[in-house]
Write a structure and sequence with these properties.
Layout: H1 7-16, E1 26-30, E2 33-37, H2 42-52, E3 67-71, H3 77-85, E4 90-95, H4 98-108, E5 114-118, E6 120-121, E7 126-131, E8 139-141, E9 148-153, H5 155-161, E10 169-172, H6 177-182, E11 196-200, H7 209-222, E12 225-229, E13 236-241, H8 242-245
């Protein structure tokens, strides 16, 4: 099994559902790691989605020391869970919001091999606006400027900065930017580096997620992937490189 809910875990989950007042970040321990959460509505929901529901996890076990990239790292809980599952993993994350990033780095500083970058993956390099209704739903938008700006880079640039590695698992939960990266970009050579990925598909003002999922599925199949609907998340796709399936 990927994850067993020990008494310690159940106690932590009860903690995550508590309503807190004030601005103090809460700290507690789970499975040998310190977990930092803010006293807001969003962080407990992210905790539940990560450690209880496991929405971000690959459909089957990766190798002993996989390289994992987390696009949309939020406060770092998914990176922590990857570290719990794969202690020898090499982890990379990217998060656009500075406040989320601060907590993310607090959560991830205890991981042996983890690098978190401030920014967002987009269809071009530069600076991009972002907005959102709460801390777990920030999305980059070329036209909007409600929350702030963040550096943005293409997947090609991002992977080049990492040395163009083979990526065992890519988690993509980027609140609609998946369309810009996959459907609006003419730079898709980076896909050959990816062995498996989980893509959460979102509704946007330009694209409903049902149609978007069909378009993304078609594109990924054209680039050498088999694509399935996630068995644990109602709005996610699992894409596996065909060369991995036949290896």
């Amino acid at each position: 099994m990927f994850y067993q809910a020990s008494g310690d875990t159940r106690q932590s989950f009860r903690f995550s559902r508590m309503r807190k007042k004030g601005n103090t970040i809460r700290k507690f321990k789970m499975n040998g790691y310190e977990i930092f959460l803010r006293p807001n509505e969003a962080d407990p929901e992210v905790f539940s989605a990560t450690f209880v529901k496991g929405y971000h996890r690959p459909p089957f076990k990766l190798g002993v020391s996989p390289l994992i990239i987390d696009l949309g790292s939020n406060i770092g809980l998914t990176l922590l869970d990857f570290a719990m599952q794969y202690p020898d993993a090499k982890l990379f994350g990217i998060e656009p919001d500075a406040d989320n990033l601060t907590v993310c780095r607090m959560n991830c500083k205890q991981i042996a091999d983890c690098t978190v970058t401030h920014g967002a993956v987009w269809k071009q390099d530069g600076v991009i606006n972002y907005t959102g209704k709460d801390e777990q739903s920030y999305q980059v938008q070329a036209e909007s400027f409600q929350q702030g700006t963040t550096p943005c880079i293409t997947m090609e640039t991002y992977l080049q900065a990492l040395g163009n590695p083979v990526v065992d698992f890519l988690k993509m939960d980027i609140e609609g930017a998946e369309y810009a990266i996959l459907l609006e970009s003419d730079k898709l050579a980076w896909l050959k580096n990816i062995q498996m990925m989980m893509i959460e598909v979102h509704d946007t003002t330009e694209q409903d997620k049902e149609t978007g999922a069909v378009k993304i599925t078609q594109l990924l199949k054209e680039h050498g992937f088999e694509v399935y609907k996630s068995s644990v998340h109602w709005s996610a796709l699992i894409a596996i490189a065909r060369n991995k399936l036949t290896a």
